[in-house]
From TrEMBL, chains A, B:
Protein name as it appears in the record: L-fuconate dehydratase
Signal as UniProt keyword: no
EC number assigned by the record: 4.2.1.68
GO molecular function: L-fuconate dehydratase activity; magnesium ion binding
InterPro entries registered for this protein in UniProt: Enolase-like_C_sf (IPR036849), Enolase-like_N (IPR029017), Enolase_C-like (IPR029065), L-fuconate_dehydratase (IPR034610), Mandel_Rmase/mucon_lact_enz_CS (IPR018110), Mandelate_racemase_C (IPR013342), Mandelate_racemase_N_dom (IPR013341), RHMD-like (IPR046945)
Cofactor(s) the protein needs: Mg(2+)
Length: 443, 443
């Protein structure tokens, strides 16, 4: 039986600040970065290759080393773990990391230690999927309702979602599962793009990218806003003119406003008919989002990429503070917490439109959306998974987008394995790229 | 003019798990620890001694190194800072740390990076107080309303507390300030103790400690609960019999329950007439606390030691989810955020009863309570600052408790300087205490 023999964690940073890829009103110069975990085993996969697991969490540069070190401290307990036993009890594997009260104090369940748990468990999920020979969405979709609920972290949710509630939700969508899998394998899962809308891009680049994305069937367009109102008016007008009246335009402020400012600003941009305003204020402000939602209707409110755990999602949904749930595969502590949030979303009827972009987030969240469609909400109506055509070249099994949809790639695991040459070059601070930058910068 | 010449950050851990000091239902074996920051300058204080600043944040052991490293990364920008300019613009000094969007991504404003900002700014406050020759509570109390509001971090609070609202609150309590300072210097600020109630203590030890605390005038008693209901019934009965019917008993579950369990458990313990139930569930669960509060009245709900920033406090208060605000001087990002929370509490009429214990928390929060009394709420009616007689021997200017109150110690700064011999012995992992423990433990 294969056993985990070692854990390797590294800090990989891509210099995206040089091209303003990913720039927004809050984050003007991020270097999209990954804490990358490799679990090695003494086993082989069905193809006879070494059986390994690869996990990622995402940051935007400085401090990635802090998450990497937290990840090392958490992950080392996995060495010696029997892979088959782990894959058969992913709920128990996850819970084993929640019993260290000393580490818990540093959150709890938020910030650096929670990002680190995500990286560790994402690697465990990739390993489990490879061990059973399935993509993780399919591994989860093939579970019974009882098995799937056992994966989910339902702690602290009992006032709105009991285990029995969760089982009832899953049983209700059991019929039609096979048909949905067939539909998914034929058509993929619908997505939208943020690629054209970064704040640092010129008008010409924005318009060109909008047209390029159309060729991939990506008809929704999302723009970053929030730095200068008149500039936002101008860019929204240009985007709306470019896409015409019928296609969806979304806007994203990345947390720069307080509640009164958000309301005022969004009302001014409402003439361009945005589908949603994303992250209008502090990601912790449940009641503030509710106020904004009430004030800017019919513009809807989307948030979640910085929503740090399932307890926050529970409240956002219960309070009627979020129209779209943008969970993040690197901020929530892996599929164990994501499944809980999918169940909450089904319970409250909130469509899940995961956050992606960054490094590896597209690769991971496609699994969350596919699982949601097949086995949890049972629909993708009114739902879109985010997509950014960015940094996929560093992955061995990158996402495939065609016809405006994430296509099922079919490989076992979580699509999270990065190319060895990418890691070697962009490893921080000792890979040749950063060693060169650091040598050239003043001390 | 004195300038900050260097920053030293160290990881200090006290082996409190050996004696169950600090043990509760969630945290059974914490080693009370500090990230300790020393800001050195080229100046001297009024007494001719080197002018320095000392800051602390508190954790319970493992992972303290992560906070220490985050603290190093943040604090190094202070080297070269002019102390007089810094002390005259503590609001600006604080805001300078909030502009690094890459570090912000790791929270935002929560977890390891926020704990680290607390340590850095606590050191800056200690240095500022020593520079102006005042205890920090007095430095703040002597400010004009405009100056005090400029210290406070009011970002994201605009929907419930504008700058003008804050100024009006402060101006309303200006009359009587001098009389309150005189009262405070004569009588101190009232406190209560948790020293007797840790979960790992025997009945005999609990009763003995209750009687010992009485001699200090500490008549309120707080017990940890939440592991075993029948055991809690027995211990609460014993404590109530020991203190009689008229003194206040508080209970503290340290987040172990979900909402339905909290309601059931507290209703069972209500016969012992607890004043409050503290941390009944996840510290993130604003709406859950509100449900518990509604269900267990007249038992009140106290929380806040894990409430990670002012945006969360804003919502807890607006939602009517907290009867007592237990802010923490190591979890909030220093007095800049604490002043904002004191203003919110005054706005909503919520009494502030800060969390303390740990390492250095008593030393710091006494300043928050004293400031609240003198210049923000203008009263200490129905308010108590927590006190634990624990680890004060490691401080040069420890708290002084007499007559059931924190007495004004009068030294300039934040009472946060630790003894060099304590740091040397308990430094992790290289101080002689931990070097010995690690050498003796299996690899």
């Amino acid at each position: 039986m294969p056993t985990i023999t070692s854990v390797d964690v590294c800090d990989v940073r891509f210099p995206t600040s040089l091209t303003a890829d990913g720039s927004d009103a809050m984050n003007k110069d991020g270097d999209h970065s990954a804490v990358y975990v490799v679990l090695a085993t003494d086993g082989t996969d069905a193809g006879g290759r070494p059986l390994t697991g690869h996990g990622i969490t995402f940051t935007i540069g400085r401090g990635n080393d802090l998450v990497a070190e937290a990840t090392r401290q958490l992950a080392r307990t996995l060495v010696g773990t029997d892979v088959a036993a782990m894959a058969a009890d992913m709920g128990g594997t996850y819970l084993s990391f929640t019993t260290d009260s000393q580490m818990r104090w540093l959150g709890p369940e938020k910030g650096v230690v929670h990002l680190a748990l995500s990286a560790v468990m994402n690697a465990a999920w990739d390993l489990a999927g490879r061990h059973v020979g399935k993509p993780v969405w399919r591994m989860l979709a093939d579970m019974t309702p009882e098995e799937l609920v056992d994966v989910a972290d339902l702690r602290y949710l009992g006032d709105v979602l009991t285990r029995d509630d969760a089982l009832a939700l899953l049983r209700a969508v059991e019929p039609g599962k096979a048909a949905r899998i067939a539909e998914l394998e034929a058509d993929g899962y619908p997505c939208y793009t943020t690629a054209a809308g970064w704040l640092g891009y010129s008008d010409e680049k924005m318009v060109r990218l909008i047209h390029e994305q159309e060729e991939l069937g990506l008809t929704h367009v999302k723009l970053k806003v929030g730095t200068d109102l008149e500039e936002d008016v101008r860019r929204c007008r240009l985007a709306r003119e470019t896409i015409g009246p019928d296609r969806a335009l979304m806007i994203d402020a990345n947390q720069v406003w307080d509640v009164p400012t958000a309301i005022e600003w969004v009302r001014r941009l409402a003439e361009f008919d945005p589908l949603w305003i994303e992250e209008p204020t502090s990601p912790d402000d449940i009641l503030g989002h509710r106020k904004i939602r009430d004030a800017v209707a019919p513009v809807k409110v989307a948030t979640g990429e910085h929503c740090h755990n399932r307890v926050m999602f529970k409240q956002f949904m219960e309070a009627g503070a979020m129209d779209f749930c943008q969970l993040d595969a690197g901020r929530l502590a892996s599929l164990n917490e994501i499944v809980a949030v999918l169940l909450l979303a089904a319970r409250f009827g909130v469509p899940v439109c995961p956050h992606a972009g960054g490094v590896g987030l597209c690769e991971m969240v496609q699994h969350a959306s596919m699982l949601d469609f097949v086995a949890v909400s049972g629909t993708h109506e009114g739902r879109l998974c985010e997509y950014v055509d960015h940094l996929h070249e560093h992955f061995l099994e990158p996402v495939r987008v065609a016809g405006g949809a994430y296509q099922v790639t079919g490989e076992p695991g979580y699509n999270t394995e990065m190319r060895a040459e990418s890691i070697a070059r962009y490893r921080f601070p000792d890979g040749p790229y950063w060693a060169g930058v650091l040598a050239a910068s003043p001390a």
